[in-house]
Design a protein that fits this description.
By secondary structure, chain A is of the alpha+beta class. Chain A contains 10 helices and 7 strands. By secondary structure, chain B is an alpha+beta fold. Among the domains of chain B are: 104 residues, Succinate dehydrogenase/fumarate reductase flavoprotein, catalytic domain (Flavocytochrome C3, Chain A, domain 1), CATH 3.90.700; 116 residues, Methane Monooxygenase Hydroxylase, Chain G, domain 1 (Up-down Bundle). The chains are: A alpha+beta, B alpha+beta. The interface between A and B is large, with 53 and 57 residues. Bound molecules: flavin-adenine dinucleotide (FAD), iron/sulfur cluster (2 copies) and FE2/S2 (inorganic) cluster. The site of flavin-adenine dinucleotide has 45 residues of chain B, from helix 1, strand 2, helix 4, strand 7 and helix 5.
Chain lengths: 248, 586
Amino acid sequence: MIERNFKIWRGNSKGGDFVNYKISIDEGMVVLDALKLIQADQANDLGLRWNCKAGKCGSCSMEINGKPKLACMDRVTDYKEDSQITVRPVKTFPVIKDLVTDLSWNYEQNKRIPPFKPKPRENGAKYRMQQEDVDRVQEFRKCIECYLCQNVCHILRDQEKKNKFVGPRFMIRLASLEMHPLDTEDRIPAIKNEYGSGYCNITKCCTEVCPESIKITDNGIIPIKERVVDRFYDPVLKLFRVFSGSKK
Amino acid sequence: MIHKFDVVIVGAGGAGLRAAVEIPKEYSCAVISKVFPTRSHTGTAQGGVCAALSNEEDDSWLNHAFDTVKGSDYLGDQDAIEIMCQDAPRAIIELEHMGMPFSRTPEGKIAQRKFGGHTKPENPNDPNSKRIPVKRACYSADRTGHVMLQTLYETCIKNQVNFFSEYFLTDLIIEDNTCKGVTALDIATSDIHVFHAKCVMFATGGYGRVYRITSNAHVGTGDGCALAYQAGLPLEDMEFYQFHPTGLWRLGILVSEAARGEGGILRNNKNEPIMEVYAPIVKDLAPRDMVSRAIISEIRAGRGILGSDGTYYINLDLTHLGKEVIDEKIPEITGFARTYLGVEPTKESVPIQPTAHYAMGGIPTNYDTEVLADHKGNTVKGFYAAGECACVSVHGANRLGTNSLLDLVVFGRRGGKKIAEFLKTADYTDFDSDPKERANSTLARLLNQAGNEKTSAIRRELQENMMEKCGIFRNEADLKQMKSIIKQLKQKYNNITVQDKGKVFNTDLLETIELANLLDIAEAINDSALNRTESRGAHDREDFPARDDKNWMKHTFIRKSSDGEETKIAYKKVVKTRFEPMERKY
Ligand SMILES: Cc1cc2nc3c(=O)[nH]c(=O)nc-3n(C[C@H](O)[C@H](O)[C@H](O)COP(=O)(O)OP(=O)(O)OC[C@H]3O[C@@H](n4cnc5c(N)ncnc54)[C@H](O)[C@@H]3O)c2cc1C
Ligand code: SF4
Ligand code: SF4
Ligand code: FES
């Protein structure tokens, strides 16, 4: 048993502050375990979302020592023994209570995206698709909607732009539809005009925090921007190509 | 607040969403879920969903049905099993058409792989010839359930289904054998919402949380089953609960069957491969119930490995597979073992123990998902159930891997169709008593009761005892003791003080309600198990080790007695079409 100090943000939509807690932890505990322990013994009213405790459901996103993470995949013993662990809710979305934030904006974005529209099947025959064409779609499908990428994207942190750019999560959602071998819908004009692909300046912060290691920028956003360029023009992508020396 | 919807579906996992997709646009449809739909448990299923597509080799739905019947230890209803297996290929193609990206074969067809218990006769012309494994499981990398859930969710969005996310079901309103709606609590505000409906479907998932070691997520508390039971309806075959042999030690997180599929070996404290003794032919690939029993037997015989907290485990040895296979074929296991146990699977064995995984039992339905009011087959008007919370019964005494995801989409759709038919003539029925008042008074009672008990402590006591006394091995003495423990815990429950009196995201209150549900589920499991004096599938009675087809080819229907103090049990005959019971040997 080792004693550990936690500093947890407590509050609601009107405001709040950090509160200190001290607990003994077992070897192998993750931050979520520690929070649940604090909730059971010291703060029954600690607001917290979790479900799978296995990094699969995307419920337990928060900022731990300033880094956006899933609390259930973050070992307490990975932090220095004498250090304090600071936990706060994700910053980009409004707080409901303590570590729980209002994510509904994200679900609204999803609704704006034109759904999958498959090409008709030829008289009932089964579709044929190559694995290499399905690979990309499967990669984007790994997304667990933890919204950590949405949380770090500086465009979304700026409230003004929130209604102009759908954010990295939905850029890869769009990419998964656009790259689906069977899909026939054309979303390219909307990607530029409504979903704001031009706002992304390829900082790749989103890719860095993705717990599913989805290459959000390289495999999703950049190819989508390229499709936009093929039809329109995207100054950011042009600059990016000049500086990174990437071809095509 | 009062809402009116033609149909209200509770549960946004695979079953609930598939049903919602099927509701025609002219009817209003609400889906209620205590978590955001895509965080439902269906999202954690990795292995696959099976159908006799014959994409990789010859197969037939009859082979699939044979395996399912045999896997169920002959307790599954064969008419329902035939429907499911026959409909499976269509269901898979339909998912593909919705945009689900299945993994492909080199010719571009949907790829299929082998999975425990799925076989075909070696000689296609002789159904009685030796059975060999067949590639029947379709998959989307190692994310089948997750991808299926997302695909169904997006199809619901397209169909403009109304979602009530983070709404917690508090009451099922049935009056005069007619279902009239539900009440639910908005978790963000604690407001009670009444959903007045022409009909209701429950798709609330399983109840693994009744056991301490479980692969089920936090939400798996069996709320739907418990509410039906509290409403006086029967629950079917509750004694059949599947333990998956390989859960991470102490945590229960699932180590997929693929680990043994790739060649992982279970070893005891002498480093002996244990399955050589228990299943000499198929060894580590024996069915789940058998491997789970083998592990517990080894531990009981003193051949387990003692862990730091005084409990025992068995080792899953993957070291001989090499880093490449481990990193490429079963990458997740490495992640889990490293994160949660600090173990490096390429160099050391992974400590495992059986983990509570899947509820074969649940709310009894016919194969059109209409809920049964009794063992005679009468139905409750306007009430449907599908998915893990329901018992059709296609899984009987033991479910085969990959058959659950199939169950969700086949019966979810059938339920949706049946509801659409019902809605053509159905109307709203007035409530006899005010549902809002009832829900609010229950909440007020919980918030005002005071005593020294704590929700988390009672839950832990329940879970630990269920694990020990009503888990993999059972006997009369243990089950009787468990019965009185449950009674005591129910008493203690009335002395719980809910510490958090707030209205916003009051998880303390929600967990207390869930605990009441878990206690009822435990009671139903335990009493059903006590009554069944035979061993079949997942139900293993040490005092009655043999399967007894003469007396026990029947489903348990358990319900609360009218005063709620005792339980009453009746039985319903298993439906047989073409498969004669045989010994279940692998
Ligand atoms: C780790 C794991 C791996 C698995 N792998 C496979 C596999 O490879 N193949 C396979 O076929 N099967 C697999 N299974 C089994 C399968 O995943 C489940 O049986 C299935 O997903 C259950 O789906 P469902 O739709 O019935 O319910 P769930 O997906 O569990 O959804 C239940 C829904 O009900 C809602 N709900 C519950 N209670 C309430 C309440 N009180 N108020 C409001 N809403 C409520 C929840 O919010 C949720 O939306 C696996 C299971 C586990 C645990
Ligand atoms: S790469 Fe684009 S989407 Fe990702 S964080 Fe940067 S600006 Fe946002
Ligand atoms: S893309 Fe990655 S970081 Fe973003 S929501 Fe999905 S899983 Fe989370
Ligand atoms: S609890 Fe599911 S991702 Fe952390």
